[in-house]
Records
---
Amino acid sequence: MALGVVAVVTLAVMLSFSVVGRESDAQADARRKKEAFFAAEAGLAEGREVMRLRLGDSDLTYNQAIAALGAPISEPGLGSPGRPWFEVLPGPGADRWNYYPLTPGTMDPTELASGTGTRVANQPYEDYPTQSSTRYRVFLRDDDDGDSNFASDTNRQVWLVAVGEVVNPQGRPTRAIVQALVTNGNAQTMNGPGCVNRGCGPDNNFNNNQDQESPTNLGNVKTIP
């Protein structure tokens, strides 16, 4: 009877350990999913700003910006010869990933201690998450704008694809992918001499609230401020 009781208790303890372990793994995976998603969102925002700076103020299509990205990437699963993908933010290492590490040595001491409103104010943290396992990559691919050349943009729209990943040394990495169709908002402008310089409206007539009459060579000419 005693051996039976010991066996039942042992099985119960082992079962509880198994349940707790599975719950811990599920919570850790959910946390890593959020970290990967936030990394992808941050990478997407950074990629959009990089493309805006590469685009400039005068270019209406993304052709110049695409050419500045260099040759298409040739990694399996990332585009194809007919539908190339381009690296927007190549990382400094051989794996081309961008990491989000936090270095406590370069941070302010107040960031490494509890706040003044806590139970123990200004108490240094015993440990600090350095985020050394969080990384991201950002890619560009042309949308289906009607032509067969996916390395050339004709409708001022391209797709940005951001991949966020949390590396898990004990298993597979946790990955999140977000993408956005970005459009060049620059508009073509035309300026010329003539009526516009004498105070008329943008449609080259004098139907505006500043000057209701045609200008003459006598006196001052009203202009739109």
---
Amino acid sequence: MALRLVMASDHGGFALKEDLKKALASADVLITDLGVHEESSVDYPDLAHALCDTILDGEADLGLLVCGTGIGMSMAANRHPGIRAALCTDPYMSRMAREHNDANVLCLGGRVIGPSLAENIVREFLDGNYEGGRHARRIDKIDLR
């Protein structure tokens, strides 16, 4: 069964989101794009909340959020219990976010990283698998507060 990836961006991440959709077109990934579909200004929390709801409702396995820096999207996404959004700037961070932190949402900054690096970050995120074990105790503590 193909991985179900839901994507969303604000106007600052639109171009990078579109580049990543093209790059992933040949992968074994079913992509749902929640928008935006043009570069008109929008409020990033609206897109982050919609993406998180899609994951929490079981309609997607993983999410990808892109705004100008990735900071706002990660902050909004992490307000949802059960969402572990990771802002990553290199492939190693992305892989570790999945393997050690069981991240289910990747956040990227469309104004701070280029398409080639972003593609590598996304591929590591999609290829990573949560290891559990010694990491599970720490993950369990995230939602305690």
